[in-house]
Amino acid sequence: MSERTVVHLVRHGEVYNPEKVLYGRLPGYHLSERGQAMARVVAGFLAANDVTHVVASSLTRAKETAAPIAAAHDVSVMTDDRVIEAANAFEGQQVALSTFLAPRNLPLLRDVRRPSWGEPYADIAARMGAAVTAARAAARGHEAIIVSHQLPIWIARLSAEGRRLWHDPRSRVCTLASVTSFAFAGDQLTSITYAEPAAALLSDATASVGA
Known about the structure:
alpha/beta; 6-stranded mixed beta sheet; 5 helices; globular
């Protein structure tokens, strides 16, 4: 029997963002009080798992989400910017239809398949795939956690499932504080499962302003 290794891709919790801007990779965006509660719920959800390796992007919201998870397993949080939020030309602008359709921004919408407004989906898939491979190697025979962001996690899943990378953002199955788990037998991916342990905290949360 091949060794079983699981890599869990965890999306960060809700961010304090009263201005409702697309914060992307901007510094200084912390978890809200509800986001901190989400992080604790995810830590509890994974507490009984055999986690030996925890990584997060360098963005504050990812590190803050990873902290209670790592503490529950007495491991340190490693930084891996292969799992950072996708680059986006709309970063720092208010999230509203009028923003996206403003004349100055229309040229950014010319190609939804690449996409023309940000980091190519193929590049995101490549870096996330490399990060999952590294985490699997570090936790071989055990479980690893990667705390990342909605778009990178969704692209990693689409790529692993052999699906088309370009998509309607509304179709993403990756809520705040969700857990997308890649299970491997040796180096072979055997299953992908999805859970929303913080679902009870999602009803009126800010779902994806910056992801």
